[in-house]
Prior knowledge:
This protein is α+β, with helices and mostly antiparallel strands. The chain has a domain at 28-95: 2-Layer Sandwich (Beta-lactamase Inhibitory Protein, Chain:B, domain 1), CATH 3.30.1450.10. Helices cover 39% and strands 35% of the residues. It has helices at 2-25, 32-37, 44-51; strands at 56-62, 65-74, 77-84, 87-95.
Amino acid sequence: MALRRLYRxxxxxxxxxxxxxxxxxxxxKISQENFxxxxxxxxxxxxxxxxxxxxxxxxxxxxxxxxxxxxxxxGDVTITIQFVNGKVVAKQLSKGDR
Length: 98
């Protein structure tokens, strides 16, 4: 009886691991479709709602201006977005370079 219970727990754990792997592999937010949703003037929070947290980000503040370049990467796709004072001013999608 205890052995049967152990096997069920292992099977359940394996099932959970497989499901989580499938979910993480499918439906990346870093895509051409989501890139096209990003519009000039869009605030950072709205971009993050579409793409998630950036993979990397760097900022500079000068007087009343702040500038940020953020990158989102998944596989061979990179989305780079430039923000000035927290709003999109430029965007780029590249494939195949890392």
